[in-house]
Design a protein that fits this description.
CATH topology of the largest domain: TIM Barrel
Radius of gyration: 22 Å
CATH class of the largest domain: Alpha Beta
CATH superfamily of the largest domain: Aldolase class I
Shape: globular
Strand content: 15-25%
CATH architecture of the largest domain: Alpha-Beta Barrel
Function: Specifically methylates position 2 of adenine 2503 in 23S rRNA and position 2 of adenine 37 in tRNAs.
Largest sheet: 10 strands, mixed
GO biological process, one term: tRNA methylation
Main location: cytoplasm
Strand order of the largest sheet: 3-4-5-6-9-10-11-12-13-14
InterPro entries: Aldolase_TIM, Methyltransferase_A, RlmN_N, RNA_MTrfase_RlmN, rRNA_lsu_MTrfase_RlmN/Cfr, rSAM, rSAM_sf
Family: Belongs to the radical SAM superfamily. RlmN family.
Bound molecules: S-adenosyl-L-homocysteine, iron/sulfur cluster
Number of helices: 13
Order of helices and strands: EHHHEEEEEEHEHEHEHEHHHEHEHEH
Helix content: 25-40%
Number of domains: 3
Length: about 350
């Protein structure tokens, strides 16, 4: 199967071009066609020599993702469901903010971390996405914007779709290098956020990368008992392993970490937990921001969304203790835009269709 050209970083493309007997400056030209002019066919690369176009065509593809569904919400959020070359489906979301256009990308087909509140966790991981498949999600969205003719650009990226990015670390890093490349899409590192469930060893690696990409940590509970109950990853990387990794990251990068905290009714939304969380973060308050996330109910999951009152009390308790925080505003709730929801619905539909087909045969 042909490889996606979007999987190559600029340096890898340059090496490939040199190895195939072409001149170095060709890499810059091809890169420009891919990410500045954003062609959808190799033959559109006008100033590239035909022999290189033929060579590229025989080795690479410009598209392994096909759009299955595109749902647009009233608030302008667009949810894309893409089919991969092997038939798996993934989802990508475009959100509009006053500061720009942000895309939420998927990094794996399913997720093995298995958090008890997450729609993605129900379907265990079948494979990692390649770096090309992650970059292509951005390109597909950008191509969609290009066809609208409004000169809109993807300006922000959140790696918060299905999957654990630090469980697909090398492909994640290649993806970040491609989208951040100044000769290409040039999406600023400070405009990119990677969210992890807390794979501590990789947090050390990420701190050592020397890039300005933001880190978000899904903390969701302020003590091991509760955290292990809702996130089984906490058994492998409990708070006594996680907190030193956070400290290392903060010391090394001096960059703020966002702590994500899903509020689950009567589970982790008591004042007591807010106090514990404030305590846990008190020595790093200057570099912490807590993002309180109203839970998006998932079918067959035992949780409910916290009451408004509880959300406010939680927020106020943190603020009173000097912890900066905010409550996440929701996007596209009318179109299943929450993590993994459209995909799991689609998979359910597929299953029902197959079952019906079996019954009828
Ligand atoms: N695996 C990574 C990134 C993807 S999940 C991680 O867990 O951080 C991105 C965020 O969406 C996480 O903070 C996750 O906890 C949250 N999330 C998952 N299911 C959710 C739901 N049903 N409602 C609200 N947020 C959810
Ligand atoms: Fe995986 Fe993140 Fe969902 Fe947990 S919350 S199951 S780590 S995608």
């Amino acid at each position: 199967m042909k490889q996606s050209i979007y999987g190559l970083t600029f340096d890898q493309l340059t090496d490939w071009i040199l190895e195939h007997g072409e001149k170095k400056f060709r890499a810059k030209q091809v890169w420009d066609w891919l990410y500045q002019k954003r062609v959808t066919d190799f033959s559109q690369m006008k100033n590239v020599n035909q022999s290189l176009i033929d060579l590229l065509e025989s080795h690479f593809t410009l598209g392994t993702l096909t759009e299955e569904i595109k749902q647009e919400s009233q608030d302008g959020t667009i949810k894309f469901l893409f089919k991969l070359a092997d038939g798996n489906v993934i989802e990508t979301v475009l959100m509009r903010f006053n500061y720009g256009l942000s895309v939420c990308v998927t990094t794996q087909v399913g997720c093995n971390i298995g958090c008890s509140f997450c729609a993605s966790g129900i379907l265990s991981k079948s494979r990692d996405l390649t770096s090309g498949e992650i970059v292509e999600q951005i390109m597909q969205v950008q191509h969609h914007l290009d066809t609208q003719g409004k000169d809109e650009r993807v300006s922000h990226i959140v790696v918060m779709g299905i999957g654990e990015p630090f469980d697909n670390y090398d492909n994640l890093m290649d993806f970040l290098r491609v989208v951040n490349d100044q000769k290409g899409l040039s999406i600023g590192a400070r405009h990119i956020t990677v969210s992890t469930s807390g794979i501590a060893p990789k947090m050390y690696d990420f701190a050592d990368e020397g890039i300005q990409v933001n880190l978000a940590l899904s903390i969701h509970a302020p003590n091991n008992d509760l955290r292990s109950k809702i996130m089984k990853i906490n058994k492998a990387y409990p708070l006594e392993k996680l907190m030193p990794a956070i400290d290392y990251y903060l010391e090394k990068t001096n960059r703020r970490i966002t702590f994500e905290y899903i509020l689950l009714k009567d589970v982790n939304d008591h004042k007591e937990e807010a106090e514990q969380l404030a305590n846990l973060l008190k020595d790093k308050r200057h570099l912490s921001y807590v993002n309180l996330i109203p839970y998006n109910p998932v079918a067959d999951h035992p949780y409910d969304r916290s009451e408004k009152e509880a959300i406010l009390t939680f927020y106020q308790t943190l603020m009173d203790r000097g912890i900066k925080c905010g409550v996440r505003t929701e996007h596209g709730t009318d179109i299943d835009a929450a993590c993994g929801q459209l995909r799991s619905k689609q998979i359910e539909k597929e299953k029902a269709r197959k079952k019906k087909k079996l019954q009828n045969s």
